[in-house]
Amino acid sequence: MSLSTPFIHRPIATMLLTLGLALVGAVSYFLLPVAPLPQVDYPTISVSASLPGASPDTVAATVATPLERALGSIAGVNEITSRSILGSTNITLQFDLSRDVDSAARDVQAAINAARSLLPTGMPSNPTYRKVNPADSPIMILALTSSSLTRGQMYDAASTVLAQKLSQVEGVGQATVSGGALPAVRVSLDPVRLAANGVSLEQVRSAISTTNANRPLGAVEREDHYWQIAANDQARVAADYAPLVLRWKDGNAIRLSDVAEVTDSVQDVRNFGVANGKPAILLQVFKQPGANILEAVDRVRSLLPQLQASIPAAIDIEIVSDRTPTLRASVKEVENALVIAVALVILVVFLFLRNGRATLIPAVAVPVSLAGTFGVMYLAGYTLDNLSLMALTIATGFVVDDAIVVLENIMRHMERGKSALQASLDGAREIGFTVVSMSISLIAVFVPILFMGGIVGRFFREFAIVMSAAILVSLVVSLTTTPMMCAALLKHPAPAQAAPRTLWWARFSRWVDGWQTRGLRAYRHSLAWCLRHQPVVLLVLAGVVGLNVYLYTAIDKGFMPEQDTGRISGFIRADQATSYQAMEQRLQRFLAIVQADPAVEYVTGTTGGWQRNAAAMFMTLKRGPGQESSEVVIARLREQLKNEPGARLFMSPQRDIRIGGRQSGASFDYTLQADDIAELRTWEPRIRQALSQLPELEDVNSDVADYGLQTTLVIDRDAATRLGLTMAQIDATLNDAFGQRQVGVIYNPLNQYRVVMEAAPQYLQSPETLRGFFFVNNVGQQVPLTAFARITTTNTPLSVNHERGTPASTISFSLAPGVSLSQAADAVNNAVAELGVPVGIRGSFSGTAGAFQSALAGQPLLILAAIITIYLVLGILYENLVHPITILSTLPSAGVGALLALMWFKTEFSLIALIGVILLIGIVKKNAIMMIDFALARQRDGYATAAQSIYRACSLRLRPILMTTMAAIFGALPLALNRADGAELRQPLGIAVVGGLLVSQLLTLYTTPVVYVALDRLRQRVLRAVRRLRGRAPQAARGPVAPALEGND
After folding, report:
1. CATH classification code of 519-554+880-1032
2. Could you tell me if 633 and 649 are in contact, meaning their C-beta atoms sit under 8 angstroms apart?
3. Chain-centre distance for alpha carbon 428
């Protein structure tokens, strides 16, 4: 009894089980979260530490280096990078994807504690850490604009109200605010008036810091009443601070307004945001890990009226970026491709069988198998994304294969006169092992993918499991539901029904029958010729193997196809000595040019913060029929902006796959490391200059910032001591004047605001204004700066970068039009080699380019592992070492077809195309399995030679082979021909599969039989040699002599 027998005898139970599987899958489909790609959370932790006033070199040496040494000993750390700027450092740790981020956070805290004794004592606080995901990008950006309110008021509404409400939305992880700062009271000090009134900066700071108090005052009570005590101890606005008494002089009060201008302003005046030409505050909304992006965005959109009502009416909220339109269109297109593929597959079956009842059986098997796969996806916690939907679309050609093979074999038994029930029992039992062999060996292809490491393995693991689940569900359906439906639905046609009912159908049926008959006759003749000229066929097969090697080395290779999302990131880098005011002007100039482009719908920009000579831009393009691609828009804007003085704009399309946390405006990174920072600073400009001359690269830039301007006070310590000044007093006074020092806190019910003290703007224009500052010594005397120091101007690094504890710099670049990543990587490596870079300088690709290099090195091993895995599985199934080789001989032709198709359509051999080739490894060997199983069964009976057996098997199995191959081709065709949103990601897979199947179908129908006969002949010779060595005569073949090839059908 076979596995199918109980299901055939119990049709109602089988039908109900199938219906239950379909219902579970349908419910699971609507519960699956939607995302552009599989959810991959990078275990990343960011450590921050500050040493106010310290130069980047000092921060790197005294803070970053001790922390890096301690953090570098944590298990599972893949990459440590740091960036040290004036007064602070940020260290980013990227862990292995298998590392739990919460456990890693505990190890980070332990390492920080261990390094604490090695850190400077002047640090105001311990280093802190937070968990981040550098690859995460906002799902939505909101812009707040107003014609009447200040930027500080808008920022306050965004930070205090909107960000809190948005973070509470289901599916939203956090909302960040940029483009401004919280409201604050700013005290702009006049050093001349300070000196005239004998007031020191420290006196001002101390007076302001003690103005506000927010402490419990107690209560009074008697028998029948209770009173809380309150006081007007809060100064909240500039008008409350202006009359503050600093000191008394000659009986007169010296007030704050006498020495400074006190205004209601913002904490940081060097922060600026713009949206479509208007001053704006930007709110970036991020999703929670595993959340449905579409649902999260829909919830935010539905909340907008409530958000608008919760802030002042003068503030307008506008959506300037939304990731979901392209995602919705992309997912919709894949779903459409899936439906089209199912329809085409069913059409192929109908054209071959021309029987409505027979066609209904695989038509049921396909959706039921896909529905069961949705259930597996839901249980595994997967998302409905481009990769999983691509897997299901391709799987339509696989899941129908098993049903076709079972159905065709049952129909062949019915053609011999058996009843539908008996044909189903016999046919399912006869073909069961073949179906299991095909499915298990196909799943074996994906086993190496499951063990792929790194980010690439994590992305494609979901693809492999979804495909494997679809194949397993299809196997179960084909051995249970399919034979049951055959027994229930298939019938022998009655004589009256045998004639076609319409003229056109009669002609069509005769045409198909004639085509099949002529095709089978031509195939038999050509196969017989090949079996008589085996050396020629084997020579062709050898040539195909060599052609594979040549094509693989010749084809352009890439990482992931560039998907046009309609969003562009921009990064403006100005001269290193550029001031904030000049950077703001340049940003507005760039924004005006970009906004004027007809393809741009929204453009936003921000500058300020930690990097004064840089700005970030974000562009959303208009979408619709006939709209230009991101690459075309970038090329046009690059040409318009290339002559803008003092700054450069680097642009790159936004991708759904982001690897690495660096933000440079370019797409790929090349990192230089050296133990000697002086040697790195010597060679980095040379290497950057060489790369900028390469025609394969565009937008070459670097994160090195070594030429900022620095005003250095060369202090005569002896003179300072003699004048009664300490270094602490000098530093404190300078910080009070030039550091936007926060010297007070204003307590409000919803937030806390600051009082900021700084010299008046006219005293911040030039280093020469330092000469007008006075320092108050320990006896209250005023000492001019020129009495104990001289002023020099030098160049200084604006930032110092480390990677794994050594000095590093990263050169970023984008690809020129028509250039593949493999070509660019070769050009970079050759250019660096020609420079004769010393061994102390170590260069390597990082981020996306580094992942590409790693994946490229592993591609041959992955293909080899898939082949070995299939061989092992087939050897176990057949209990034979030779027959698996026959089956694997089908693979070279598939590889040639895939590579030729990709080259014909000028498509890179990307990771998506690689998955297509691996799929082909599993697909094309199914044809060989169907041939060999029948040949072995006939040969084991002893009634035919190897040549006669394989000839007979090929003749009998030609129809199911063509049906399954055509089904697989039509299943992949919608992906290959698609041109809608997201098609760039899907096309390589479809092109590779269709091309590989077409060529392999043409060749393997002849090479597989010849290899089978050749290996059988070799096996017989080996057996005869072994028997001779053992002294035994070879046994004669059992049974009668088989007739000639052409007659044995």
Report:
1. 1.20.1640.10
2. no
3. 44
